[in-house]
Structures are given as C-alpha cells and as structure tokens.
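Input.
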Amino acid sequence: RNEGTINLTAQSTLVSESRSYKIFRLGIADADSTSLAFATGIDGAEGPNTITNTFTGSITVSSNASATATGVAADIGAAGASASTTSNAHSTGIKSGSGEDTIINQGILNVKAISSTYAGSGDLSLIGLSFGASITEAVADGIVAGDGKDVVTNSGTITVGAVQDNDHPMA
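Output.
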C-alpha cells in the first residue's frame, strides 16, 4: 500500500572507445558497449498480491540508458574499424508476478523510459573497412499484472512515455 511519494530513477551510461595506429602492418580497432537500465516503482513479485496506490500516492519511475562506441583505425597498409552499441531502458510503475493479484491505482503514475545510442567508426588507410551498428530499445509500462487471475482497477492517472534516440514520447 502506497500513500506517499515514490520517485525512482535508474541510469546507465557507457562510453567505449578503441583506437589503432600502425605503420606498414594491419590496424584493427573494435569498440562495443551495452547499457541497461531497469526501474520499477512497486514490485509485488511471485505469489498472490494486493497492491494499492491510494489517491494520495504518487509514483514517478524513470530509466535512462545511453551507450556510445567509437572505433578508429589508421595505417599506411590495411586497416579496419568497427563500433557497436546496445542500449535498453525499461520502466514499470506497478507490477506483480504470477498468482492471483489485485492491483488498485487511485493515485498518479508517471512512467518514462529513455534510451539512446551512438556508434561510429572510421579508418584511414590504403585498404580499409569500417562498420558501425547500434540498437536501442525503450519500454515503459504503467501497470503489469503477471500470470494468473488478476484484477486491475485504475481510477487514477497514468502517464507513460518511451523515447528512443531522441524521438518524441508515445504518450
């Protein structure tokens, strides 16, 4: 039972860099990074649960994940550079696990997930190859009920938004 205020933020930021400088040899640079941020306001876990966020209750959940990878190779001969990033942010206001659950929201849920990535690579050589790849995912859920016969009642306010790579939120 929540009658107060829950403010929760999870943040993960990762920067990965790789550089290679060679003369008359093979120059290779590889940079990979993965950033994960998960946040849940109230988690009922497994088994039967009764979760209540009263009209005076306010839950604000935010997760931010950003990943940056840069690979640079330079060689008079052959060079290769690659960079890849993965960024996942997942926020949930109220969730329960398996079992017969009752979830009642009479208060305010503000749930936001932000995920951004950047991958860049480059090479300077007579023969060269360069790759860059990035994957981003932002998931925001107001109320998630697990397996079982669940009853979910909302008479409050739920605002949910997910932002991927600086796009506009969905809600």
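The chain has a mean pLDDT of 86.
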